[in-house]
Amino acid sequence: MIEAVGLTKRYGAKTAVYNLSFQVRPGAVTGFLGPNGSGKSTTMRMMLGLDRPTSGHVTIGGHPFRSLPNAPRQVGALLDAKAVHGGRSARNHLLSLAQLAGIPAARVDEVLGVVGLHDVARKRSKGFSLGMGQRLGIAAALLGDPQVLLFDEPVNGLDPEGILWVRNLMKMLASEGRTVFVSSHLMSEMALTADHLIVIGRGQLLSDMSVKDFISANSADFARVRIADGAQEQREKLTASLTEAGGQVMSEPDGALRITGLRLPRISDLAHESDVRLWELSPHQASLEEAYMRMTQGAVDYRSTVDQKAGLQQPVHGGYGQQPGYGAPQPPVPEMPQQGWYAPPPPGQNPYAGAPASPVAAAPAAQAAPAAAPADLTKRETSEDAR
């Protein structure tokens, strides 16, 4: 088990991690989430004794990492897949690590087979792709058959088959009773891999709960309703009836209605009473990504802006008149929201769960960025080869 107590790390005036306390228990895959700059990598470095905390402490199996006897046999980690001597082959790299830890050479060939690098074992690692480097880093973490494993972005650079392999590997390791701690920015993958989540923002703990509870606490489930196309009068009648009953109704881009605050049986009864025929009535649950974005929207340090392409617009000379992308800017076209993407209403009573969801405060959403300027059609894209 990994345990952090009051963990704080400062670099001069910059506080990277502040008063962080949590436990990573064995037998489950624990996801470690947070925006860029939130302190995830710093926290993992302190776990492995690479950085000393300013205050607080972190232990693995009840002991600091530096106090563990023969640590590679107890803890395996992948923090930087490029931390490899490029002139060494994959096998020699692992063999040097095995010799330092007293691990039999036969184990090297075993882990090379596990990660799928057996055929390139004698090739120099400097020629490896990013995905192959990730596999080599995972092999190094598995080398000592440790009970505690830490992975920082383990699927970075992997193809779909590799991502599926890592997912199944993490689950298998956890099913064997090991402690598996995984940092990642891929919410869709974390939703499929992790059992528990630890979320931090600006160095502080935001959430420590199961994936299911996290989604429930930071979003609201909704019902999707569809009626006959073109039946505007029935649509308005149903909307008025649902609103009067306490529901919140929003329109989807495809014409369906998104309803929160009412249970499905109640929605069906109201439609029947209003003499409205439903073509669809289905429950939907928010994704991990939507719940994560809602929780961390106030803890994001790096936000992008729209490229206005200032000074790159060129007027057209000739008798062809104004065309899009030339001369005076064209009036902006209203943005059409993407299918299924709406910020959920403030969490409260979940109409589709047995117990009410815990309210979680969320920072105000950032203002919408201005629409991007029209593209400059006078420029032709050229490849590096053509130049």
Automatic annotation (TrEMBL):
It holds the Pfam family ABC_tran. Keywords: ATP-binding, Nucleotide-binding, Transport. One of its GO terms (molecular function) is ATP hydrolysis activity. InterPro entries: AAA+_ATPase, ABC_transporter-like_ATP-bd, P-loop_NTPase. It comes from the Bacteria. The keyword ATP-binding applies. Residues 377-387 have a biased composition (Basic and acidic residues). PROSITE patterns: ABC_TRANSPORTER_2 (PS50893). SMART domains: AAA (SM00382). Residues 313-387 are annotated as: Disordered. Residues 2-227 form the ABC transporter domain. Residues 351-375 have a biased composition (Low complexity). Belongs to the ABC transporter superfamily. PANTHER family: ABC TRANSPORTER, ATP-BINDING PROTEIN (PTHR43335). This is ABC transporter ATP-binding protein. It comes from Streptomyces atratus. The lineage of its organism: Bacteria, Bacillati, Actinomycetota, Actinomycetes, Kitasatosporales.
